[in-house]
Structure formats: C-alpha cells, structure tokens
Amino acid sequence: MMNLTLSRRVFLAGATALSVLAGGSTATLAAAPADTLVIAKPADPQSLDPAVTMDNNDWTVTYPAYQRLMKYETKDGKGLTSVTGDLADSWEASEDGLTWTFKLKDGQKFDDGTAVDANAVKFSFDRLFRIGQGPSEALPSGVEVTVVDPMTVSFKLGETYAPFLYALANNGAAIVNPKVAEQGDDDGKAYLASNTAGSGPYRLANWERGQTITMEPNPHYGGDKPAIDKMRIVIIGEASARRLQLEAGDVDIAEALPEDQLEALESKDGIAVQNYPSLRVTYLYMNNQKAPLDNADVRRAISYAVDYEGLIDGILNGNGKQMHGPIPDGMWGRDESVIQYNRNVDKAKELLASAGADGAEITFLYSDVDPNWEPIAIATQANLAEIGLNVKLEKLANATMRERFDTGDFGMATGNWTPDFADPYMFTSYWFDSDRHGLAGNRSWYTNEKVDELLREAALSSDQAEREKLYAEVQKIVTDEAAYVYLFQKDYRIAMRDNVEGFVFNPMLLDIYNIAGMSK
Amino acid sequence: MAEAQSTAKRSRFDFGYFGYQLKRSPLTMVGLIMVVLVLIVVIFAPVFATHDPNAIDLRARLAPPSMAHFFGTDEVGRDIYSRILFGGRQSIAVGFFVVFLAGLTGTVLGALSGLIGGRTDTVIMRLMDVVLSVPSLALILALAAALGPSLVNAALAIAIVRIPFYVRLVRGQALIVREMAYVKAAHTFRAGRLHILRWHILPNTLSPVIVQGTLDLGSTILLASALSFIGLGAQQPTAEWGAMVATGRNYILDQWWYSGFPGFAILFTATGFNLFGDGVRDMLDPRQKAR
C-alpha cells in the first residue's frame, strides 16, 4: 500500500513536471529531403477557391497552383511592383481605355492536360463575378468578357479603371479549368474550396486539415520543370515549435515568428533571417455600426489611448513605424498632413466623457495567426482600461474570427493588410467604401457617403495628380473620423534555412513563394 | 460490525489522534506545510505582490528575473511573480469551489439514493452511470466548450463530472448504515427519513467525503490549469497558472521563466494537496489503523 502511494506521488510530480516542460505537441518530421520544400505556417488555409479567398494565408497554396493573365515582374532577383504577361502573350487597350484585348500564350495547360484558351479565361471571370465575393471587388463591376478567337479574349469595362492590369495579377484573377463546373451545380464552389484546378507549376496533392498540405508539380505545366518536386506546408500553431523545427532542419521556411525569436535566430548557424521592406500594416478594426464605437468621439478617444510607441519599441523591438493615416510609407498618394493620433490619455478621457461612453464594454477579437496580436490585444485592453473602457478579449480560431468580421459580430479586432497591387486604391477603396463591408475589406463597417463618392471618382480617373488630390481628401476625413486605429507598418521578416535559394520577395505577394524558381 | 462501529465513532473528528498520526507520517506533514504555505501566500497575495498583476509595461517585456521583477516579466511587461500570487487565487478557488459543489451535491444525492432506494435510487444511479461512462476529460472539455470559455464555467464542468464519485461513495455508506440495528430502532420509533439522514447517515459518511475532497483538490487544480492551458478556462488578462504556462510556451526557448515559474507553482500546489490528501486518507482508513 505504501509503495503504491509513493509511486503515485512520484508519478504525479513527474507528470506535472513533464506537462510543464513539454511545451506543446510538435509533429515530428524527418529532415526535409532536398527535393522537398517544407513551409511551417501558424494556421490552416480556409478556402482554396480563388473567387472566394481573401487571405494571403490561403494564397500560399493557390498562387502557385494557378496562372493569371498578368504577373509581377522580377528583375535581378528582386520583385517589382510592375506587371508583365503571364498567360497573356500580348495585350492592347482601346483609346478610351474601356476595351482590353489579350492574346494568350501557346502551350499552357491545366493539370488535367486541357489547354488554357479564351473560353477558360471567360469562364474564370464570369465565375468570379457570379460568385461576387471579396476577390471580385478588385475589378470594376460590369466587366464583360468575350471570346474573340480560341486564343484571344477581350474585356469590356463599364468605366475606366486605373489599376486594371494590376488587378489581373491578383490571386482572385486566377484562370480556372472550366471543367470544375461539372463538379456539382454550384459553379464548382465546394470542389474548389479544397482542390486546385489551375495551370500553374504546382497542384494540390493532399490536404490533411490542420496538419499538412502537399503540393506536387503540374505534369502538364507549360513552363520549365521546377527543381522542387514537392512543397509541403505544415501547420504548427506555436511560434516556438515552428522555430525549433526550423533550427532542426525539419522545415525550410518558418512563417510568422515574433521579433524576439527572429533576433535569437539571426545568430544561429544554417539559418538566414530575411528582412524586406514591405507595405504591410497592422491596424485595429472598430465596428463603426456598433455602440459605443458608432460614435466618432469614442473612436478618437481610443485612437488617443493606444500606446503606439510602446507597441513599436516593446513588441516589435523598434522594428516598425507608426502609421500616419491609412496609406503606408512608400506608397504614392500618402498624405502626411492628416492627423496622426498619439498617446494622450487626458484628451482620450475628455473625448470619452463628452461621448458619455464611460465604462462601456467592447468585445475585442484576435487569433494567434500573427504572434504579435495577443500582446497588442492585452496592451490595448490595458490602455483602454485607463480611460474607462472595459474591453473583453476573445481569442478565436482564425477562421471563426474572420467569419465574425463578415457578419459584423464584434467590437474591435486586430488585423494586418498588405496590398495586392501598388496603388492607394488598396488602402482606401477596400477599407472605406461602404460597398465592401466585412471581409471584403471594410472591416470597420465604416460608412460615409462623401467618402464613397470620392473613392469611386478616384478609381475612375487615370490622372494620377487628380487621384492624389481625391485620396488626400479621403485620408483627411477617415483619419479625423478615426475609422480604424492606425497602428504600425512593419518590415516583412521571414526565417529560412540558408540553403534555400531563389526566393524572390514581392511586397505585393506576401506569404506567396515562387517555388517554381526556388531550389535547395 | 466492528468496522462499522469504528466508522461511526470516528465521525466526530479526533484532533488528538489526527495530530499523533500527522507526526508519524512526515510526508503528510510536508504536504500540510506546502498547502498552508500556498494558502497563506494566496490569501495575502496583495500584501506579498510587488506589482499590480495586470499593469503592463511594454518596454520592460520579457525581462529576466531580477530584483525589480523576482520572476521576470511576460510578453507585455507584467510582473510574473505578482501574477503567480494572484493567479493562485483563481486556481485554488476553483479547487475549493469544485470540491464543495461536487461534494455537497454528491452527498445529498448519494444519501437520498441509498436511503430511499427503489425507483429514486435507480434513476439517480443510472444518471451517474451515464456521466461516468464518458471519459471524464472528454466530458469536461465538451461541457466547458458548450458553456463558453471562462473560469467559472470550467469549474462548473469539472464539478459536474466529479459529482458521481461522491454519489457512489455516500450511497454505499448509506446502504450499510440503513441496515444498522440503531437505524432500524430509530425507524421503529417513527423517526422520519430526514431525521435518519441528518443524525445517522450524514455523520457516518463525513470521513470518506472529506478524504475524497482532499484528494480531489489537487487534481481539480491541475484540471482547471489544463482547461486554461487550452484556452477554455481563465481569459486574458486574468492571471491563472495554466493560462500563463500556455502563453509562456511561445517564449520558452529564450524566456524559460515565463512558463517555468507558473509551472512550478502548479507542481508545488498539486503535490502539496496530493501528499496531504493521501495522508488524510491513510489516517481515516480503518484498514490502515491496525498498523
């Protein structure tokens, strides 16, 4: 009896100690073979349908699986923000800028061997507009696609649209195999959510939810045979586990590591921490339709309460820059004459009192897809408590959180945004146009008729000086009305094994890898 | 018969004997000291704490242990030492809450079940079998998830799953006592069920319930920490040991102190309660007494 008791005690102590030390479960993998590229991601993709997904985290899979009419240029190993033809061999615009005609390249094939032709292009864009979700909003409404001949297709725009060619390099403008229409009567929506059907260098081979995604070369790909024979994406929730596997060589690329881990990795043998200036910003959504955030003074008070410098110095170790209005530094159209909110607790309290929102409760959503979000959430909660706002934090799975953005069932939330083309349109029309409420881009559910008008006018114009003027006016209104909390702009940092070669970073293609051009 | 009588006698707690036993069992003594230490520290947390447990200091984040922060700071610069002191309040309160709720409900249900018998007994016991037939951790997870993530809900979920253990314990005891001559005698003198419950059954079941409760405290604290660890228990910014270990995991490679100290707090408390609980059981178990 005594022995039994003792051993139970020892076991208990041992078990507790183990549970403390073990950290988390880490999937064990064999070291990555030379023809396999392994990428560790913090969260599973949600949908692989190019007409549905609005998340770079999904595009890691979809972008290399499809081709588009246009693609971003690469020069001397550097990703540019200008575009060139991908499936398009040549293109021309009519004088009024409303009709665009594209000649397709020969010899491009979907992964089932069918040739990519004008019909497939028409099908893809018709489908994109039929489904009508977020990705379709990158293009103006009323686009008509006609097949001129099997290898020529023309687009008729209802109105001029300055970033048209850029929008064709977007993930949403992917050319989809028309045969997906045979998969059920829902335009292949259910099928494409978890399968790929494109002409890109790779295709999806296997997807074990929450575990691994395997991609293999498209046997009928029209370009050169890629050096990497398999791309495997492993889903590892904890940042420290991602880092450990990178150190051990089990993974080649680890995404979304917090700043302090990246700093510790910089001095490790066999690992290269890449640093790229990017246009990615981190900001807070404030649901403009929900009390007390429907009151601009409350939103201003919050904007004054946040400790921007503390977040940048503390959480980012100084590797970031406070935003000044919605448009990031390095993007044309940015107007630095607008108000930049800085921490001013007295002013925040005053505004809150004048709005009569003292002691109000706000639900704040975040997920761990970005390791900086939790500290930001806790810090914001403490900052807002100082001025008398009661913030209730809710940590959710990333997919659940995004669903709630779409239904507007939240108060505040953390978010990152990176442009898909180098145009201020990405940071204005998406964020503030009341047509795009929810996941489509206007995550604050902001509504202002004047802003809508200005934005739509700016999108129609092809005169950059005039657009700049219109965007300046927009920035003035939306910063004054504190539609979002504009936090910071941060370099894109990613840790890879140092034998990974050929990666080209493009600030328009975050979380997207040019695997076909990579080797190790 | 002799055994049953001794049980009845011991129900009036004999502290002289208790103290004597305690001296004879050093491990129980160690457990008791650990438990008392934890209780003192936790009850007087505001006195011992050096910082406001929720006060952030972004520039001093992830600082190693020092004189300014005994156990270092976390990812938003909160003092881990102070958070452990206040976090203990959550964990230990959950422990007592669960044991009290499950113990009380279980005792009442078990006593009624044993005393009344018949259909009441069948219904209660089959219900308990249903609860017991599901793996308890799975049931706790399901309940906590259904109730929504919060520490109170986590405690409720654990309590619900623990109830059947007390019901079985007390029912068994009640079945024995019910057949005792003195109960039959009381019955003959037209004593009501409530009278028998109050004066005969409950006193006789007190000891095993106390033993079970003491043993449960340690495992409940561990369970509550586990629920917080996976995000179903305490929510930010509430300090709670399990939640602290969970967040600290992300920093464990460079900042060992973040999950290390709250982990040790869990280990220390659970060990203390378990040692003490085991000792109390040994003391109150009649079969051990002969030694």
TrEMBL record, chain B:
The keyword RNA-binding does not apply. Residues 92-277 form the ABC transmembrane type-1 domain. Keywords: Cell membrane, Membrane, Peptide transport, Protein transport, Transmembrane, Transmembrane helix, Transport. It holds the Pfam family BPD_transp_1. Its main location: membrane. InterPro entries: BP-dependent_transpt_permease, MetI-like, MetI-like_sf, OppC_N. It comes from the Bacteria. It is found in: Cell membrane. NCBIfam families: PRK09881.1. Belongs to the binding-protein-dependent transport system permease family. PANTHER family: D,D-DIPEPTIDE TRANSPORT SYSTEM PERMEASE PROTEIN DDPC-RELATED (PTHR43386:SF1), OLIGOPEPTIDE TRANSPORT SYSTEM PERMEASE PROTEIN APPC (PTHR43386). This is D,D-dipeptide ABC transporter permease. The lineage of its organism: Bacteria, Pseudomonadati, Pseudomonadota, Alphaproteobacteria, Hyphomicrobiales.
